[in-house]
Specification:
With about 475 residues, this protein is α/β, with parallel strands linked by helices. The chain is built from 18 helices and 14 strands. The chain is about 40% helix and about 15% strand.
Length: about 475
Amino acid sequence: MVDKIYIEILKQILESIDEGIHLIDVHSKTIIYNDAMAKLEGMKKEDIINKSFARVSEQMSIKNSTLLSVIKNKKPIKENIQKYLNQNGKEITTINTTIPLTINNKLIGALEISKDLTQINYLQEKIEKLEEIKSIKENKSEKLGYSFEDIIGESDCIKNAINKSKKAAKCDATVLIYGETGTGKELISQSIHFASKRKDKPFIAQNCAALPESLLEGILFGTVKGGFTGAIDRPGLFEQANNGTLLLDEINSMPLQLQAKLLRVLQEGYVRRVGGTKDIPVDVRVIATTNENPISIVAEGKLREDLYYRLNVIQVHIPPLRERGNDIILLANKFLKKYNDKLGKHIESMSPKCEKLLKCHYWKGNVRELENTIYSSLSMMDEENVITNDVINLNQYNNYEDQNNYMIDIEAKPLDWVVADIEEKYINEALDKTEDNITKAAAVLGIGRQNLQYKMRKYNIKRK
């Protein structure tokens, strides 16, 4: 009775684990074949269990079966990585350990344990193909990258951001760039790099939200062969950006544990590859970007406070497009020329009403949205010479069935503007009530002192 219970427990354990289990006896008959192995190989259990695996191998066109090899040679085969097509035609990658089973020194069969590495291998290949180093190297026949001359704008807010960025280019301090999605954070980052003394060295960009923590750590800091299954000797982005600039985009998406390791690298100037023991000196200028308010993400626990202070030596705030006034038309005309050339069209201008519509649009996607709007509109135009309200392709409707009922009144303010007006009013009232005592005003408003100071700068609230 006890033996039956143990056997039933063992069966349940074998069916609950993620690894594939395949056990054959000395006559190659399959005794155990769990669900994970069946799923991995695309087979049905009833086609395998109690059948000769030698015959099944022939049917599956398996030329070098590790299970049959272990039965024949009585020697284990450990950590054998295989890539093959399963019975469903899907390419899979596995790491297998196959061992002989003996009782009283007598061979009774062979056991294979298989772990699916298909997804890991796929992500690794994607990294190599799609996440190739975004390094802009010197090429005499091509433009190196963005510079401050590429930034178009006459508004005071964008000029302030440019002037601050030009000062940042003259030193090696870390820079934290804050701006909504599509405002041009990478353009500013490249401009800083190519105006600095590091301009002839690598500029490498990595989006911290693009990869899971385990892969991002290896990408940033490198890996050592044998450090973990499938690892190879590979330098990380810090090593590859040595003497140059590393842009860490969307730093607020980096896992907190990885932020701690990044902080250590910034403080000490050394990296240690994943799985390694050697400290490698690096000289890298780090620029980090965030599309969320830095003070808010620190308060919310998305960004370590100590890392924030280490990155925030110089902070550059890129204003949203809706706050840049006539810059919207300057940029629209730039994109008009760009896509006229690309599409072989000759659209001369925009109508006054169209310009007004562009200036009153909220531009949630900022400059990127404006560029796509001009590109989309020109793509759909035929013989017209002027972009009008009828042809401008603004994303105003959000798939509402009755689009006309959702049209924005261009004379009205968007909701965020109204909220900002109310917020500014309450801040001024709190400061009046507390006689400009920022600590007390923050308490009245129910926010932190730093958050209040940030909002005062945002709304240009100045007190004696």
